[in-house]
Amino acid sequence: MKLSDKLWNWGHLEGSHNKCTGLECSMTPEQFAEEYGIKNAFIVSYGGNILPPFDALANRFSLLREIKWSVLGDASTPLPDAELGNTEDIIRVLNNAKNITGGVVDDFFSPERMKRFPPEVLKKIKGTLNDKGLDFWCVLYDMQLDMELEKYLDCFDGITFWIWKSTELVNTEKHLEKLFSLTNEKPVMLGIYTFDYGTGGKIMDPALFEKQLSTYSELLRQGKVDGIIFCSSTLGDAELETNRILKEYVRKHGNEELT
């Protein structure tokens, strides 16, 4: 398996982050896959901009290598009425979307979402997805590591982990140690932001980005994590130094064989 096979895009729809970043971008997830060579994507609703039925969008993304589709969108996406979120809507498109391999809940560990989707419901979602050969992922942030989450984390097949504020990147080692103590050897993917959303919405320090990328890449090569996710394709056509670094990284290392 090549290193690029383990790289993922956090795939909000084009233009999703224009308002929160002040940038004018229009890159699609499929354009990002072509330009950056990162052909796996989490496809996640932002502000309710992805709603079922998913057939047309799934067809649009047919050339992506692998997709984890949002059972629940981001915090600004209204919660679905259905008990299992968008689980059944994802399953309905599987016959024509063979590249969908899992589901994901974004921004999950909030009082509202944890109350609406307690462990018994999460287990139903996981079981329903697993019965169709799909896995079930969640988003976990560094500031949530000290919450009592064991009974919730047990309901997921894999965890994506994100350090929200760039000022916390100096504590990456400490956060990862805590993370791995909670995961019970579940697959983990580590997220990297190309834009500094968490500290007031500003350009990410390229040196911080590069250091995080180097650290996470070594963990990937060592087999300690299952993938690296970049947020986000929606800013892929912005004139950001982090985008240049990312392109160069994939060009230089994407074809490396992982042992």
Outline the structure in words:
With 259 residues, this protein is an alpha/beta fold. The chain has ten helices and ten strands. It has helices at residues 18-21, 29-36, 55-60, 87-92, 111-116, 119-131, 150-153, 172-182, 206-221, 241-253; strands at residues 7-11, 40-43, 66-72, 100-105, 135-141, 158-162, 188-193, 195-196, 202-203, 227-231. 40% of the residues are buried.
Total helical segments = 10
Percentage of helical residues?
Answer: 25-40%
- Residue share in β-strands: 15-25%
Total E-strand runs = 10
Radius of gyration: 17 Å
Q: What are the low-pLDDT stretches, counting only 5+ consecutive residues below 50?
A: none
Nearest-integer average pLDDT:
97
Tell me the overall shape: globular
Order of SSEs, N→C?
A: EHHEHEHEHHEHEHEEEHEH
Give the N-terminus to C-terminus distance in angstroms. 8 Å
Largest sheet: 8 strands, parallel, barrel
- Secondary structural class: alpha/beta
* Largest sheet: spatial strand order: 1-2-3-4-5-6-7-10
Please render the helix and strand layout as text.
Elements: E1 7-11, H1 18-21, H2 29-36, E2 40-43, H3 55-60, E3 66-72, H4 87-92, E4 100-105, H5 111-116, H6 119-131, E5 135-141, H7 150-153, E6 158-162, H8 172-182, E7 188-193, E8 195-196, E9 202-203, H9 206-221, E10 227-231, H10 241-253
